[in-house]
Amino acid sequence: MNAGDGMTGGPNSGRGGGQGGGRGGGPTSGLVGGLGDLARVSDAVTRSISAENPTGEKGHGGAATEGTGANAARDLGRGWKVSPSIRIEAGDTATLAGIEGSGAIQHIWLTTHVSNWRRLLLRFYWDDDPRPAVEVPVGDFFGQGWGAFAQLSSLPVAVNPNGGFNCYWPMPFARSARITLENLADDPVIVYYQVDYTLAAQGDDLAYFHSQWRRSNPLPSAEVHTIVDGVEGTGHYVGTYLAWGVNSTGWWGEGELKFYLDGDDEFPTICGTGTEDYFGGAWNFDVPGQGYTAFSTPFLGLHQIIAPDGLYRSQQRFGMYRWHIFDPIRFAADLRVTVQALGWRAGGRYLPLQDDIASTAFWYGRETSYAAPATPDLDTLEIC
To answer: Residue 253 has what DSSP assignment?
Structure first.
């Protein structure tokens, strides 16, 4: 698959051999990638930022003389894993990557202790905009909202044992990119990371990557959970992750996802038929004789099922994702996305639920940032 074509849905979408990689207009595009482009020569420059090369500068990897591995490397010296990770003090914000020029982030790998997954806020900034395009708890950004590992094997996001976070969402920028991680906890944290990117000119049809996190805990009765709103202008919606905590007995996923596009008011243009349907499952994700059944595929999945343990984990919890890669939802003026929480009550009637729903939305837009909900504090993020 051509990384650019798969996102823009052009005439070569999904065929892997589209001319010019979809966005950048030619083989030098910073978004060239995927099997269809492996045989193409490009003058794009490949760079990588990590604790071993915090600036991504050519010829400077592994040159640190101080770092979290300095004691372990004391017999071997410089060049022997002296700085494999960073320490972020309580309340501090670390800059993981600061990139100048035109290019695209192509892959991010990150890991930290599981207890930090809801205590670290991940932010992305494009083209010197002081307002972030991404502000999401690091665990939720990688589909791990419940502070417990769940294998996720999809095309743009992969999470592998034991907490290896990988992201392949293409993230182009025209002038600069900055990635930060804020530690909201009361104690320091250790983070390992690597940001792989390319430096290359981007085309005039550049769209920026965005992600937003919201939580309803609990969702008020007979109200909907808003996944995203306040998005104005042109763009395309590419993904949803939900961390869903059930507070009632019985089935919880009868509610519909709705996409309000380009001036839709009371009723949306796109309306699904049920929560499990949107995430690619059917009939309550319930295999007879087996019950809830996890699955993880390139574009959608119910990858996490947390059952009550008879003690402190008293409620069922689920993690689900849907990536709109071959089916991006395009908008020209504005976008709002919601989900209902519905179960069943006596007499075959719907029961509005008051569940704990945390959502992460992913989209591309022409702006470097959009209106966003208030930055969550540690109490709002807490898994409880």
So the answer is: B
Q: What is the full DSSP assignment across 342-356?
A: EEEETTTEEEE---E
Q: What is the pLDDT along the chain (384 residues), one digit of tens a residue?
A: 343 433 433 333 333 333 333 343 343 344 546 777 889 899 999 999 999 999 999 999 999 999 999 999 999 999 999 999 999 999 999 999 999 999 999 999 999 999 999 999 999 999 999 999 999 999 999 999 999 999 999 999 999 999 999 999 999 999 999 999 999 999 999 999 999 999 999 999 999 999 999 999 999 999 999 999 999 999 999 999 999 999 999 999 999 999 999 999 999 999 999 999 999 999 999 999 999 999 999 999 999 999 999 999 999 999 999 999 999 999 999 999 999 999 999 999 999 999 999 999 999 999 999 999 999 999 999 999
Domains of the chain: 1-43 (no CATH), 85-381 (2.60.120.1390)
Tokens 């823009």 sit on residue: 8
Please confirm whether the linkage preceding 162 is cis (ω < 30° from 0).
yes
The C-alpha atoms of residue 119 and residue 144 are separated, in whole angstroms, by 12
Name the residue among 331, 338, 353 with its Cα closest to residue 249.
353
CB count in 10 Å sphere of residue 102: 20
Question: With contact defined as beta carbons under 8 Å apart, do 303 and 149 qualify?
Answer: no
Whole-number Å distance between alpha carbons of 26 and 201: 10
Tokens of 15: 């065929």
CB 21 within 8 A of CB 44: no
Contact 157, 148 (CB under 8 A): no
